[in-house]
Amino acid sequence: EVTDLGCGRGQFAGLLLDAGLARRVVGLDANARLLEQARRALHDLRFEGRVQDLGADAVVPEADTVLLFDVLYQLPTAAQARLLHAAARSARRQVLIRTADPAQGRRAGSRRRQSARRPPKPLRPIPDRGWSRAMPASRLSISARASRSGRCCAR
To answer: Are 155 and 138 in contact (CB under 8 A)?
Structure first.
């Protein structure tokens, strides 16, 4: 089970459900129009879309995995902290975070074309340039147990 915070049109939810990597996805987003598009696109999959302003309401449905992809930079600092703590409390296994600020000239979803003749290069950490910080996913997971004890930390 996955909760996708700021799910938009549900592209990632659809990917997870189609690939069999999630049994069910609950997507939260403040934009009702985008959620309606997600519901139409994922009507035959186990997707539930809910309208929720994550900056004002940090209630996160319990799930094995909670996703925060390109959401945090859109919120004030205090709301970011509330949402992170709520996500960590609600996650039975892990919280996965991807963030970038497009106002800094970079989109987290930008891609570089790879030649079909060459295998892709192994991933390596990207230095912090003010717009993004990349690190191994294991470092981005927040221990649900640590959150329940009041301490959130990256592994």
So the answer is: yes
Tell me if residue 67 falls in helix, strand or coil: strand
Amino acid at position 142, single letter: I
Name the CA dihedral angle for 56, 62, 68, 72, rounded to a multiple of 10 degrees: 20
Cβ atoms within 10 Å of 94's Cβ, excluding its own: 19
Query: Would you give per-residue pLDDT tens digits along the chain (155 residues)?
Result: 999 999 999 999 999 999 999 999 999 999 999 999 999 999 999 999 999 999 898 899 999 999 999 888 888 889 999 999 999 999 999 999 887 666 665 554 444 444 444 554 444 444 444 433 433 334 444 444 444 444 444 44
Query: What's the chain's length in residues?
Result: 155
What tokens were used for 63? Answer: 């799930």
Q: How many other β-carbons are positioned within 10 Å of the β-carbon of residue 106?
A: 14
Q: List the strands of the sheet with 63-69, edge to edge.
A: 47-51, 25-29, 2-5, 63-69, 91-98
